[in-house]
Amino acid sequence: MVDEVRVIRLLRAASGALDGLRLEQGAGFDRRADAIWLPGVKYLFISVVEACIDGAQHICSSEAPTAPRDNGDAMRALGQRGILDPGTADRMRMAVGFRNVLVHEYVGVDDAIVLDRLADLSDLEEFIVQVSRWLSVPPETP
Question: Which terminus of the chain is less hemmed in, N or C, by CB atoms within 10 Å?
């Protein structure tokens, strides 16, 4: 059985990190010139995706017939169960890959990709909306 309180807590954590990313979307040159700005953005990405992963894994533990092979597979499973639409499930699998690059190959990260991802947060937003809808909980609005 899905622990709805746990999933809601994870969605709130994801939403909070996503709010931080939204604030940084419009950061001016002076802010972006700060040496800790880009590492902070990367950390927010890691935080939001990990909260989504934790939620997906928890849902899969009680809803999926078999355990996901990995975090990307958990997103695929949510798509197969109709919790996420197929497009969102695919984009979230890519977000999981992006998180893996940030965590495991931090030095080799192409900063231009991070900035491109910052410009479009719709996959992360849709994950929160769709999982909230599945739980029948109104998503927090920005």
Answer: N
